[in-house]
């Protein structure tokens, strides 16, 4: 019997589900053994369910082509042979919240890519390099759910990954006002150019719900666990305002950010803080953790999506064009991979952290 933890991908046919499968192939700790999706895919082999819609750069794993897809709503069937679940379902938020809690109540940990539980007070929303201590709130969540092992943990929105890590590296300089405009790839909407031809040569200056997430989620990440209340209390010392724009790029979210600091850091101090920033994943050597979380690029025309989006297998963040600003103190450009660091990869690193902390174990 494999020593690896057995994993179910719930929402396996979507773009993020496919990214989970692609990244997890040959993972040293986890093995995908169960696939689940909507009723229209259930009962078909994975290859049949996709019907030629495999969107990843690497081939579909041969061993999963003939795996029969289960109905994601048949929770007991999905969890019976797995140790935990990655959730990437595409449903209404209320339906996702209810479904993920059903999974957790079977004593199966759920690591979710979805936004539905990001503001549930006792559900940790984790960027492992930034707030690994937030997993402590899981004990409060398990009391609410009435579980011993089952719980839900989530990763944050993909749009914040291109600027929040830099601001986290600079917390000692006390950033207090931030303006960020994000230029977001179409895969963030689960689309390719074949499926969304109107995005060719086009920009859409609106992404539903994205600006609220981009302004509020960093504050929850910078918050703290209140043991008396049994919840995460968001930070209140930073104000963020954003605009989010869809651009004709397949992978990679770019941010243009402006920051005011209470302290007066130099450019050299800011760059040094970026390059020296690391967290628990680097200390523990988690399998998906980038060895260098944030790179600073000195070239005036970097970072670029084509050249830099796959930095550290898409799990690193690239920062460049750090300059003094006439209205704010400093401005910079950030880039992150939206389906690696920002989606499936970030959730996988979160699961690795939870395993290392003892929250995810064999059943």
From TrEMBL:
Catalytic site residues? 158 (acyl-thioester intermediate), 253 (proton acceptor)
Instruction: Kindly state which keywords UniProt assigns to this record, in alphabetical order.
Output: NADP, Oxidoreductase
What's a single GO MF annotation on this record?
A: NADP binding
Instruction: Please name the CDD domains in this protein's record.
Output: ASADH_C_arch_fung_like (cd18130), ScASADH_like_N (cd02315)
Give start and end of each Semialdehyde dehydrogenase NAD-binding domain: 6-138
InterPro entries assigned to the protein according to its UniProt record, in alphabetical order: ASADH-related (IPR051823), Asp_semi-ald_DH_pep-lack (IPR005676), NAD(P)-bd_dom_sf (IPR036291), Semialdehyde_DH_NAD-bd (IPR000534), Semialdhyde_DH_dimer_dom (IPR012280)
Q: Source organism's superkingdom?
A: Bacteria
Q: Could you state one GO biological process linked to this protein? A: threonine biosynthetic process
Query: Belongs to which family?
Result: Belongs to the aspartate-semialdehyde dehydrogenase family.
Q: What is this protein called?
A: Aspartate-semialdehyde dehydrogenase
Native organism is: Ligilactobacillus hayakitensis DSM 18933 = JCM 14209
């Amino acid at each position: 019997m494999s020593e690896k933890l057995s994993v179910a991908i719930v929402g396996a046919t979507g773009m993020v589900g496919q990214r989970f499968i692609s990244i997890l192939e040959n993972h040293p700790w986890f093995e995908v053994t169960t696939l689940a999706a909507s009723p229209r895919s259930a009962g078909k082999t994975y290859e049949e369910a996709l019907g030629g819609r495999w969107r990843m750069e690497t081939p579909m794993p041969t061993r999963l082509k003939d795996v029969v897809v289960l109905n994601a709503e048949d929770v007991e069937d999905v969890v019976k042979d797995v140790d935990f679940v990655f959730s990437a379902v595409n449903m209404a938020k209320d339906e996702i919240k209810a479904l993920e809690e059903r999974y957790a109540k079977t004593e199966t940990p759920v690591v979710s890519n979805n936004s539905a539980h990001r503001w549930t007070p006792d559900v940790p929303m984790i960027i492992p390099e930034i707030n690994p201590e937030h997993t402590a709130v899981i004990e409060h969540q398990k009391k609410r759910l009435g579980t011993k092992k089952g719980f839900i943990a989530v990763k944050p929105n993909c749009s914040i990954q291109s600027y929040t890590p830099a601001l986290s590296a600079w917390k000692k300089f006390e950033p207090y006002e931030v303006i960020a405009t994000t230029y977001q790839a179409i895969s963030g909407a689960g689309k390719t150019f074949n499926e969304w031809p109107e995005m060719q040569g086009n920009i859409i200056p609106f992404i539903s719900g994205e600006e609220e997430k981009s302004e509020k989620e960093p504050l929850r990440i910078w918050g703290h666990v209140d043991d008396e209340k049994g919840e995460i209390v968001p930070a209140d010392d930073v104000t963020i305002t954003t605009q989010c724009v869809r651009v004709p790029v397949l992978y990679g979210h770019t941010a243009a950010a402006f920051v005011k600091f209470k302290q007066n850091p130099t450019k050299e101090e800011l760059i040094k803080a970026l390059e020296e920033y690391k967290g628990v994943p680097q200390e523990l050597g988690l399998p998906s953790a980038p060895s260098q979380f944030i790179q600073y690029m000195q070239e005036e025309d970097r970072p670029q999506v084509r050249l830099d989006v796959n930095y550290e297998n898409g799990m690193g963040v690239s920062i460049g064009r750090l300059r003094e600003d006439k209205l704010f103190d400093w401005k910079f450009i950030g880039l992150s991979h939206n389906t690696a660091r920002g989606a499936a990869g970030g959730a996988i690193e979160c699961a690795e952290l939870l395993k290392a902390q003892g929250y995810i174990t064999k059943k």
